[in-house]
Amino acid sequence: MPNETTPHRVPAPEEMARVQHAKDVAAERLLSIPGVHTVGIGYKRRGGEVTADLAVIVFVDTKLPRADVPPDRMVPLEIRFFMDSSDREESVPTDVVEQARPVEYTHIPAGTLAGRARPVAGGRSIARAASGGGTLGGWVWDGLNDEVVLLTNNHVLGGAAGTDVFQPWGSTAATDHIADVVRTGTLDATIAAPVNAADVLEEIEGVGPAVFEITTATVGMPVEKSGAKTDHTTGWVEYVGLTGHYGSTNDFQVAPDPGMPNGRFAYYGDSGSLIVERTNPSGGSWKRVVGLLWGGNPELGNAKAHQVQDVFADLNLDTLCAGAFEEFLDNLFAPNFPEEPLKVTPIQLPEPVTMPLTTGPRVSLSGALLALQQAAGRPFARSRPLHRGMARDVEARLRLSRMGSDLVTAIHENRVGLARLVLDRQTRRALASAAAPFVEGVWTADELLGRQVTEEDLARFHRVARIAEDHRPELQPLLERVNRILGELPGRSFDDVLR
Asked: Alpha carbon of 280 to those of 283, 287, 290: distances in Å?
């Protein structure tokens, strides 16, 4: 039912593990029952009311009184199983829910966020010339090509590399060509690279800065989203671990909160929206993204979504802060390392090869795409430098001391400002020019943090701090901490000061 309230109780990990195990044990058997189309996990209902008891949820086309159910269509009242760590038989209740099979929320005309906007934030309408379109979820980092890309659904933009992406939907004007499709994956997700970096706005309309952190959607979690059709709406995670779409076994469903316009969390045209946790538990100014919306049951106003962590893993994506900041720091060390070309092993593809672009599951053919594009003279990704990972090594070393760990925490708390600082090309060049002399010849994190700092080095560090403060004033508290550390550095190393 739409507009039901939730206990907003997030289950303990041990409780979720039990129910997940029960679902995994029984899913194949349950899905073989005629009329069952989806299996998941959620709160059991009694008398139409949501309880706080977790159950394996079995979705059927039509729910009948138990006395009228034929034996071959009977869903067991509970799932009995043995946990790997115990010899004791356990059980988890089931709950049969009548719900139509979900549909993709493809474009219909109009919508609050359907109009043209520059720069373009998440939540705005986008389309390819040959389709109605959907929603630009948000801007993320492509870990394969080291660049900012937009994220949306495959059924919105397709998966053909080079496809023109327009904003707003309905336009095919050259001035509205904002991106080109890069690739798709096995899930209903596609990324596209911006034509003009100035068109990128690292926010989601009505939500705030994004995408700077991700997490897992859990049962009972309060969430929100902005979509091209229904704008900003709120709801709660009703079910997780859903089977079905593009072969996923880990999707989730969001129910609208009471009072949502027309009783909807999402509707046609909202495909591609990013769903976010309503409150950041750490108190950050950004909200954690949990899912990529692909459809739902329009008669209920709900939404179905892939877990965003699954999408990121499938497409080799990262958050803007992690990707952009790491790439900036790693590239400072690039001159110290020889380039190693990306090696692609040719693979033999069966003939003929069919890759549907509009329906059905996608097969992951990353190796095949690399081989095909390399043969065509268009590399899928840049050569992979040997210095990748230097930033992570430095962070790991810093965390070995209390002061260093505190500094890393402060950096993460200021991830939005730092990411925006290095995403600006002019600022990035100025920062790199100021910092490059100190890292010249450095091969390891130990060498970097153990290098003695001279007065000339200190002057360069202060220059970096001034550039950062001039361009991102919100970083001032972090920079004050950095300046205190800098004051102790001349004639010493970072290791000496931070230990």
From this structure: 5, 5, 12
H or E segment to which residue 166 belongs:
strand 164-166
CB-CB contact of 140 with 149 (8 Å): yes
- For the segment 156-163, the average pLDDT, to the nearest whole number, is 95
CA distance between the termini of the chain: 57
| Average confidence score pLDDT of the chain | 88
pLDDT band at 331 (very low <50, low <70, confident <90, very high): confident
Nearest to 156 by CA among 125, 182, 177, 186: 125
pLDDT tens figures, 462-472: 999 999 999 99
Residues recorded for the chain: 499
Contact (CB, 8 A) for 2 and 256? yes
Torsion of CA 33, 74, 49, 7, to 10 degrees: -50
* Contact by Cβ (8 Å): 137, 122: yes
Written as six digits, the tokens of 174 are: 């050259």
Please report how many Cα atoms fall inside a 13 Å half-sphere around the Cα of residue 340, on the Cβ side.
9
Do 441 and 390 touch, CB atoms closer than 8 A? no
308 sits in which H/E element:
helix 308-315
**CA distance linking residue 54 with residue 298, whole number of Å:** 25
pLDDT in tens, 93-120: 999 999 999 999 987 777 789 999 999 9
387 and 445 Cβ atoms separated by less than 8 Å: no
CB 88 within 8 A of CB 209: no
d(CA 3, CA 257): 5
Q: How confident is the model over 258-284, as a mean pLDDT?
A: 96
Pairing relation of β-strands 89-98 and 125-126? Answer: unpaired
- H/E element, 183: strand 177-184
In this prediction the pTM is 0.88
Q: Can you list the pairs that 297-300 forms with residues at least 24 positions away whose Cβ atoms lie under 8 Å?
A: 297/99, 297/100, 297/102, 297/103, 298/103, 298/105, 298/267, 298/268, 299/100, 300/1, 300/2, 300/99, 300/255
Using CA atoms, how far apart are residues 185 and 344, in angstroms rounded to an integer? 19
Which tokens is 398 given? 């810093």
